[in-house]
Specification:
This protein is of the alpha/beta class and about 290 residues long. Helices cover about 45% and strands about 15% of the residues. The chain has two domains: about 5-205, Spore Coat Polysaccharide Biosynthesis Protein SpsA, Chain A (Alpha-Beta Complex), CATH 3.90.550.10; about 210-290, no CATH class.
């Protein structure tokens, strides 16, 4: 059946405004068939869950509550299985719509996989995630992303043929936080499936606290280490670590990092400095590699 399924994986996030905006655009586009499906992935924030329940009462909308957390990859695979239509549009629940032509822009392209990107909304100076994303903002343009189409792919905002997604689901072995989208780009590369990058961003506006983001980063580095064989061509941290090991400085680097780790971390959380943040990630990964061996 021809049509569009907009799929939103959600965890501890009120996404009612996002769904309202998408609902309005779908209705105005006069699509023959469309739906919006929100899947709650075992949220522990009951306030957010109760706010999102209203979505299930709107036309063409479905709200699904999963009692157990499936994980970032598995919940997207679950949504694809539930989808009724041939075209899938995945959007993260903590994003916002910044263009009145967002849905129409995706519909104008027939490419099998399309990534629209994201943009930074507002000013959140002093927030680590905001400062990190703002520094990389120049690379968010489609013309830049297309040069490394598989490496610069993210699952926060992409459109894909359902048949392709079902044949190439996300790798559920990525159970922890991070890198499931990097691995997905690698899947497309290995399968020879092209990715079209366009400028059709969603807005990134909801920035977690510095401490919460640091915990996510540390978890993602563990994910990176566990999947290092697949991700070695997609990570600068792995590349830097390989150089450090090649010149036999990894033991010294790990020892130095352990001496200053707590101080570095406090400094980053209190007053973010991106260079220090980069050094922390490298040191954390080197020390993680040592501990896991």
């Amino acid at each position: 059946m021809k049509g569009l399924s907009i799929l939103i994986p959600e965890y501890n996030c009120d996404c009612t405004q996002l769904v309202r905006d998408l609902h309005r655009q779908c209705a105005s586009a006069q699509l023959p068939s469309w739906e919006i499906v929100v899947a709650d992935d075992g949220s522990i924030d009951e306030t957010a869950v109760n706010q999102n329940r209203i979505i299930g009462t709107w036309d063409n909308c479905t709200f699904i509550r999963n009692e157990q957390n499936m994980g970032r990859a598995a919940i997207r695979n679950f949504l694809a299985e539930k989808a009724q239509y041939d075209r899938l549009l995945f959007i993260d629940s903590d994003m916002c719509i910044v263009s009145e032509d967002f849905v129409k822009t995706y519909l104008a392209s027939s490419a099998p996989v399309i990534y629209g990107g994201y943009s930074i909304v507002g000013n959140h100076a002093g927030n680590l995630r905001y400062e990190y994303e703002r520094q990389a903002e120049h690379s968010h343009r489609a013309s830049v992303r297309q040069r490394n189409c598989y490496k610069d792919f993210h699952t926060s905002n992409f459109c894909i043929d359902r048949s392709i997604f079902i044949a190439h689901p996300l790798d559920v072995s990525y159970e922890g936080y991070g890198y499931e989208d990097v691995a997905y780009g690698d899947q497309f590369c290995r399968a020879g499936i092209p990715i079209q990058h366009i400028d059709n961003p969603v807005g990134y506006y909801d920035f977690e606290t510095n401490e919460s983001y640091m915990l996510k980063v540390e978890e993602s580095l563990l994910t990176l280490y566990r999947h290092r064989s697949q991700l070695k061509d997609y990570s600068r941290i792995i590349a830097v670590t390989a150089v450090v090991e090649r010149i036999h400085l990894h033991h010294l680097a790990g020892a130095l990092f352990r001496l200053v780790q707590n101080k570095m971390r406090r400094q980053i959380v209190t007053c973010p400095r991106l260079m220090l943040f980069t050094l922390y990630k490298i040191g954390y990964y080197i020390n993680l590699a040592r501990c896991q061996k």
